[in-house]
Structures are given as C-alpha cells and as structure tokens.
C-alpha cells in the first residue's frame, strides 16, 4: 500500500497494531479464538485380546488398545476434560467377510468396547462410526456388487449396524461411508428401534483423500483395499459447492451435527459449511495429518506441541465447533500446563 493512500495516512503513526501484541496478557485479552479441551473428540483404536497396546508404525504415539486399557485411557481423557471419544475397531481379519456381517453381531468388538466404557466412565460421550470398512474382506465401506459399492443394499446394512451399536449403548452415531440417503435411513431405523434421542454426527463432506492411509493401517483395511479407491462414494477434492449440497442434504435427512474431513487441507470447506449452514460443525484432523506433524516432530524438524496447538486453533478460526484429533490427550494436557 502506498503511504499516500487515505487509510494509511489516517492510521499511522497514531494507530500501531503492534501495541496489542506487546505482552502475553494483552495478546490473551484480545485473542479472537481459543482452544479448549472441551472442543476435542479423541478417536481411539480398539483391538481384541489381553495384549494391552499395539503400536501403529505410520502413527507414532498412537496405539490400539485392548478393552481393559481403553477403559483406563478414556477415564484419563475424561479427567483431562475431553467430552467424547470416537471408537474404531481393528477387527480380526478372520472375521471379515464380503458382506461385513460382523458389524451386526451384538457381541462384536466395538459393542463390547462401548459397554465397557459406558459402565466404567459413564460421563464421557461415546461415538461410533457407521460404515462397513472395518468388517469387509474387500475394505470398502459398503457392499460390493459388480465391482462398485451398491448404495441401497448398503443402506440396510448400515441401519442394522447403527441399531446394533445403539443397543450397545453408544451416545452418538457417525455415518462415515458417504452413501446417498444414509442419514435419513439411519434416523428412521433408530427412531423405529426406540432410539429417537440418539444423535447423528454425519461425515457430510468427506473427501476421497490420500490422507487416510495411516488410519487404514491402524484398522487393518489397507491390505484389503489394495489399489482400490473410494472415489465413487467419497467426494472429489476439486469440489466445494458439492460439500454444501451434501451437508444440506444430511441436515434435511436429520443430521444433528455435521463434519468436514480431512481438516487442514479443507479449512475453506469448514468455513463455508459453518457460515452457510449454521449448524454444529465438526472437523476431523485425520491420520495423515497427524502422521505428518508427528513424523516431522520426531526428526526435530517441528516443535510438536507448538504445531499441534497451532493446527487445532486453525480449525477454531475456520469456524469449527469441535475437532476430532489423535492429539486430543496431548493437546488437553498442553492446554492445562499453560
Ligand atoms: C471409514 C473411516 C475412515 C476414516 C474414518 N472412518 C477411512 C476411510 O474412509 O477410508 C479416516 C480417519 C483418519 O484417516 O484418521 N469409513
């Protein structure tokens, strides 16, 4: 800007934006956005058996927990002020089938995990994914017919999975498969099953992203999926208007809360969804985002705590009401230390 433009002339030197940045207390006082533990949802991987933890090479610092360890860890998360956990089962490959029927078994891993957590830590929210990928031998989120995921046949399966998880006692169901009409179908199934108070957090704008790689390692679906892609159901990263249309449809079908995913490469989508649709909006800082920050920090290239908190604050600034992040516990602890 030229120093002769009117705004500049009127402003400087009487106006000096640096004045409010001079001290920590004043920076705090004028801060427009704030991150707190109550903004965070912790995604956790659960595994069967007594072995307490198993590590995930592409997600350093993240573990798959046995149910007993999960109960301990969710108790600690609750004590740190984290309102909810999202559970993801790493299913025994022997239980995976073409039709993913393990998803409907009342005693499957995720249902047992939900019951154990709700019994031991009743005041933490438990969110369950609705999608078949942990259970299918081909690694897709739905039923494969003639080489593609069949929309309407999958809807029935998702409804059965949703009701099964509701019966186990979960608090929120999160359909993550991007089938058309799933939110409405699941809402009706829940209402018919006597679960009209159970909330739906829809993965409404979920992109076909390469940033999900480490998650697929964690739940053991990458081997099954192989070179397969989810581009016929997850969104094209080129689109933004489509995200608004997808999200509006989910709201019309009964979604109580919506989500954008991945997070950092899609901050523009978070902003548009929040501004244009004005509903509780969540964002998922996905496994690949975690992996990038964790790997660079391990090498000493980035300051782990600083990039963690900065990346999470960026979601608040973009308009998110809550954030799913593998950093949830570390972030809640770091915020406490401040
Ligand atoms: C499965 C699901 C995925 C994630 C959450 N639920 C992976 C996928 O769509 O392949 C990704 C989460 C992450 O990368 O952290 N329906």
Question: How are the SSEs placed, and which strands pair?
Answer:
Elements: H1 6-11, H2 24-30, E1 40-47, E2 53-55, E3 63-65, H3 67-79, E4 84-90, H4 109-120, E5 125-130, E6 144-145, E7 148-149, H5 151-168, E8 172-175, H6 182-192, E9 199-206, H7 213-219, H8 222-225, H9 241-253, E10 257-261, H10 267-277, E11 281-285, H11 287-298, H12 304-318, E12 322-325, H13 328-337
Parallel strand pairs: 1-3, 1-4, 1-12, 4-5, 5-8, 8-9, 9-10, 10-11, 11-12
Antiparallel strand pairs: 2-3, 6-7
Helix pairs in contact: 3-4, 4-5, 5-6, 6-9, 9-10
Ligand PBG is lined by residues 129, 131, 133, 141, 176-177, 212, 215-216, 230, 286-287.
Question: Could you list some keywords that capture this structure?
Answer:
alpha/beta, binds ligand PBG, eight-stranded parallel barrel, 13 helices, TIM Barrel, 41% helix, 17% strand, single chain, globular, two-stranded antiparallel ribbon, 338 residues
């Amino acid at each position: 800007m030229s120093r002769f433009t009117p705004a500049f002339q009127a402003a400087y030197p009487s106006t000096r934006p640096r004045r409010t940045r001079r001290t920590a207390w004043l920076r705090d006082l004028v801060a427009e956005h704030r991150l707190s533990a109550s903004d965070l949802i912790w995604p956790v991987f659960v595994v069967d058996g007594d072995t307490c933890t198993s590590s995930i090479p592409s997600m350093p610092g993240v573990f798959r927990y046995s149910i007993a360890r999960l109960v301990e860890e969710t108790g600690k998360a609750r004590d740190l002020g984290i309102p909810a956990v999202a559970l993801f089962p790493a299913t025994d490959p022997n239980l995976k089938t073409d039709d993913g029927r393990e998803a409907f078994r009342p005693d499957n891993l995720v249902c047992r995990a939900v019951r154990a957590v709700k019994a031991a830590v009743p005041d933490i929210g438990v969110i369950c994914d609705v999608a078949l990928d942990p259970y299918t031998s081909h690694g897709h989120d739905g039923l494969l017919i003639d080489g593609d995921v069949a929309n309407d046949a999958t809807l029935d399966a998702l409804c059965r999975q949703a009701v099964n998880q509701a019966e186990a006692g979960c608090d929120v169901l999160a359909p993550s498969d991007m089938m058309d009409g799933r939110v409405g179908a699941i809402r009706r199934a829940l209402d018919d099953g006597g679960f009209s108070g159970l909330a739906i957090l829809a993965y409404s704008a979920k992109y076909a992203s390469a940033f999900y790689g480490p998650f697929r390692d964690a739940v053991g679906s990458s081997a099954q999926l192989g070179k397969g892609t989810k581009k016929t159901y997850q969104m094209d990263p080129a689109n933004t208007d489509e995200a608004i249309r997808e999200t509006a449809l989910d709201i019309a079908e009964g979604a109580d809360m919506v989500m954008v995913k991945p997070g950092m490469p899609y901050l523009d989508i978070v902003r548009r969804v929040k501004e244009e649709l004005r509903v509780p909006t969540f964002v998922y800082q996905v496994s690949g985002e975690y992996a990038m920050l964790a790997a660079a920090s391990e090498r000493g290239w980035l300051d782990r705590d600083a990039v963690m908190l900065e990346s999470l604050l960026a979601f608040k600034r973009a308009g998110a009401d809550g954030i799913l992040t593998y950093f949830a516990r570390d972030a809640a602890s770091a915020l406490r230390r401040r």
